[in-house]
Amino acid sequence: MNGKICLVTGARTGIGYATAVGLAERSATVVMLCRDEGGGATAVRDVQQSTGNPHVELLLCDLAAIPASSRRFSGAA
Fold first, then answer.
1. 65/77 Cα distance (integer angstroms)
2. All structural domains of the chain with their residue ranges
3. What is the structure's pLDDT at 20?
4. What is the mean pLDDT of the chain?
5. Chain-centre distance of CA 30, in angstroms?
6. Could you give the angle at which helices 14-25 and 37-51 cross, rounded to 10 degrees?
7. pLDDT at 69
8. Is 40 exposed, middle or buried (0-12, 13-18, 19+ CB in 10 A)?
9. What's the rounded Cα separation, in Å, for the pair 45 and 30?
10. Is residue 56 within 8 Å of 50, Cβ to Cβ?
11. Quick check: pTM over 0.70?
12. Which residues contact 54 (CB under 8 A, 6 or more apart)?
């Protein structure tokens, strides 16, 4: 998946985290969408360390607050 950018929601734990790991293992650039900055940053670091893929990033996003998250995602926030 080299050259692909993958967004993963709920990426801090559970299925979202496992998905992020699987994509990172396959050389994708992974953007982990999380609500919690501290937990999200820890999850990103863990995925980077466990997969050796430095192309894993955190994007704070609360899907319960769509307008604010949309502005942040588009770079307008």
1. 13
2. 5-74
3. 98
4. 90
5. 6
6. 40
7. 64
8. buried
9. 12
10. no
11. yes
12. 48
Question: Is 5-74 a domain of CATH 3.40.50.720?
Answer: yes
> Average pLDDT of 28-52?
96
CB 65 within 8 A of CB 39: no
- pLDDT of 62: 76
Written as six digits, the tokens of 47 are 């995925």
State the average pLDDT over residues 63-71: 70
Helices (H), 1-77: 14-25, 37-51, 66-74
Give buried/exposed letters for 10-19 (b at 16+ CB in 10 A, else e). Answer: bbbeeebbeb
**Cβ neighbours, 10 Å, residue 59:** 17
Of 26, 30, 31, nearest to 1 by C-alpha is 26
DSSP 62: -
Q: What average pLDDT does range 55-74 have in this prediction?
A: 78
